[in-house]
Amino acid sequence: MTDQRTSEKNTEQQAIQLTTHAQIGKFNNLKVIALMDNGAYLNAGELGEILLPKRYLPEACKVGDLLKVFLYVDSADRLVATTTTPLAQVGEFVSLKVVQVNKMGAFLDWGLPKDLLVPYNQQHTEMEVGKYYLVRVYLDQSTDRIAASSKLDKFIDIWPADYQTGDKVNLIIGGQTDLGYKAIINDLHWGLLYENEIFQHLRVGKQMIGYIKQVREDGRIDLILSRGSKNKVNDFSEKLLAHIADRGGITPLNDKSAPELIQRTLGVSKKTFKATVGNLLKNGKIELVKEGIKLV
Where in this chain does the record put each S1 motif domain (predicted)? Predict the structure, then answer.
């Protein structure tokens, strides 16, 4: 058993590549160079030797091990390491809750012992305790402290958009407008989801997959949450089959069901539902019966 554990540990260590240039506010793979009563000291290159407190040490840790750790400045202004995963790293957008406001600014809970500061000059609107705000996590180059900003526009649309219709992209919902919802595309650009093409509940900060509908002549980007036509049907087929199977092989939903009921039950439009039903009927996977739709 001991040999097996050693082999597993060695395999795990080989899978982790050493970080050559450690970065504050990011996860880094650092080598253990000393074990002390208060924890392990890690080689962070130009950043020097950094302490990983004892409470974060993995079992059987030894000198020479590579550990995946997050680097940040703690409440005592010391650069430290942790194996705890924060809700976001430097360079990422995230929706976080304000837990305190004082003369320095607003403090957000981001999953680490030291809360994340949003200075007053980085607040798009004055923040209030208990509310959630979409922010960008950044590194203050003058202090090496990690902070956040709700002035999102200065971090977005810096790079030219290079998307094709149908491209799959990562989205973060950024806020509601008269036309629908703004969304951040791949942490780089603003795009728009139109209200009449949204068939699910959205909230600011929600992360999801979407698709490029079109890049307009003025450079603005239209988005959609599901692929069109054939791909949309294929994407939903498995979900519908699972829904029927979970109900003993039959569902009362049919082409006469109200669009609101279909949306509430399955999270898709009636148009998508009917197209998927037609596709599954054609392939002999379901049949229409008096009680609704039945698995074949």
Answer: 23-84, 89-151, 164-226
pLDDT tens figures, 128-154: 999 999 999 999 988 889 999 999 999
Exposed/middle/buried for 233, CB within 10 Å: 0-12, 13-18, 19+? buried
Tell me which DSSP letter residue 125 carries.
S
Residue 40 is which amino acid? A
- Residues 192-206 as b or e (16 or more Cβ within 10 Å = b): bbeeeeebeebeebb
For domain 2-82, give the fold: OB fold (Dihydrolipoamide Acetyltransferase, E2P) (2.40.50)
Q: Where are the beta strands (DSSP E) in 5-92?
A: 27-36, 39-43, 49-53, 66-73, 79-82
Task: Quote the CA–CA distance of 170 and 187 in Å, as a whole number.
Answer: 8
pLDDT at 166 over 80: yes
pLDDT in tens, 66-104: 999 999 998 888 999 999 999 999 999 999 999 999 999
User: What integer pLDDT is reported at residue 3 of this predicted model?
Assistant: 53
pTM for the whole thing? 0.71
21: which 2 tokens?
A: 């240039």
Instruction: Check pLDDT > 70 for residue 40.
Output: yes
User: Does domain 229-295 match CATH 1.10.10.10?
Assistant: yes
Could you tell me if 44 and 54 are in contact, meaning their C-beta atoms sit under 8 angstroms apart?
no
Longest dimension (CA), the chain: 73
Cα–Cα separations (whole angstroms), residue 37 to 33, 49, 61: 14, 16, 13
Domain ranges of the chain: 2-82, 93-153, 168-224, 229-295
Cα–Cα distance, 105 to 149 (Å, whole number): 11
At the topology level, CATH places domain 168-224 in: OB fold (Dihydrolipoamide Acetyltransferase, E2P) (2.40.50)
